[in-house]
Amino acid sequence: MSFKGLKPIVYGGREVWPLIEGGKGVSATNHMSSGAWAAAGGIGTVSAVNADSYDAEGKIIPQVYKALTRKERHEELIQYAIDGGVEQVRRAYDISGGQGAININVLWEMGGAQQVLEGILERTKGLVTGVTCGAGMPYRLSEIAARFNVNYLPIVSSGRAFRALWKRAYHKVSELMGAVVYEDPWLAGGHNGLSNAEDPLKPEDPYPRVKALREVMRKEGISDEVPIVMAGGVWYLRDWDEWIDNPELGNIAFQFGTRPLLTKESPIPQDWKDELRNLEPGDVLLHRFSPTGFYSSAVRNSFLRNLEARSDRQIPYSKVEAGEHTVRLDVGVKGKNFWVTPKDLERARAWSAQGYTDGLRTPDDTIIFVSPEERDEIRQDQADCMGCLSHCGFSSWKDHDDYTTGRLADPRSFCIQKTLQDIAHGGPVDKNLMFAGHAAYKFKQDPFYSNGFTPTVKELVDRILTGD
């Protein structure tokens, strides 16, 4: 018996539980977790963002880039992504044993996203039920879904964003829209769709936002049977009691992103799993350091604190003496002409004395101060760029036309591909970006995980279905 009579939904022609595994970026969900989630009767999600491939012995093939130019490395990246995605889908499908369903998740802002998605779907016909896609405005998603006859599940954070996608493209392929994922920008982990109209420090209640999304869908003639998937902050189903069977909202499903990280099948390294058990409320930071330009949420570890500190060591400058910029900067910028305020000159000298001796310009006419080691790492990472995003603020890469954003590379950001690959494959959890949703502190509070207990995916799904 499931919580409050939660009923299965029909998806991809079969009955599945309305429980969806969130597809987490680089290798944080793979065939083991998503295949097991589907086998338990839910919708498992393979991440198709630079997924792992395996050699003949079953070992993960490290993604090493041999080409000299960014553009050629970008081609290598696309090939790795397609091969890895295909491998993950095939394995997940085998594990699912024909139960539940397998989706793939793609970041629209990923470099070569369309090529990667088409390349995977071409080679996995009949295995993938649907594609979830967010981070950006994926207008082309519906036409790709139509070409391969799979469902598509756009990820949006507002009714307004959905309306724009529907009017421009999705109304032409309405029959394949499997669900609409509402990703709460204040609660979800990873990249999210916080817009300029919203305050990152003032979370809004998701209920009225989801109700407004349903109203937009109804206005466009979309049946209440098409579920809205609540994503972000979902832990216990009992917390969402009033959402289930609620005529105001129509059909609702729930996405679990953070909870499946701590399962036996979860592919993340043990150190990462251990760290999740120690988080307190407020340990996950909504920040804007990502090279995508989007807000995102991650654990506030040393890696993020270093980025915060780096941005704090920042002063505006002008190339000519003007206004309050009356003194020349004499540290960090050998012999170059930068004018700053007297107060900022003092601050810059103090940072230099602390060992932050190198000034790096940002695209916003400011200078940040870093240590020589940091400077070398930033420059090396920028030089090694393999074009993993469609637009990268950190390296000024763009995946089309002239292959540059035309802006100065931003040293306040970081190489996201490097750090996500590293943490997923055993690199130090404190020195890398660790995405997590804002409810991650519940691992420490939830009695289910006491005495170091780690459930299988099946045990987790069964537990979720009780309301806990």
Automatic annotation (TrEMBL):
* One Pfam match: NMO
UniProt keywords (A-Z) are: Dioxygenase, Oxidoreductase
- GO molecular function per UniProt: dioxygenase activity
* Gene3D superfamilies associated with the record: Aldolase class I
According to the UniProt entry, the coiled-coil residues are none
Tell me which domain of life the UniProt entry assigns to the organism this sequence originates from: Bacteria
Q: What is this protein called?
A: 2-nitropropane dioxygenase
**Annotated source species:** Novosphingobium malaysiense
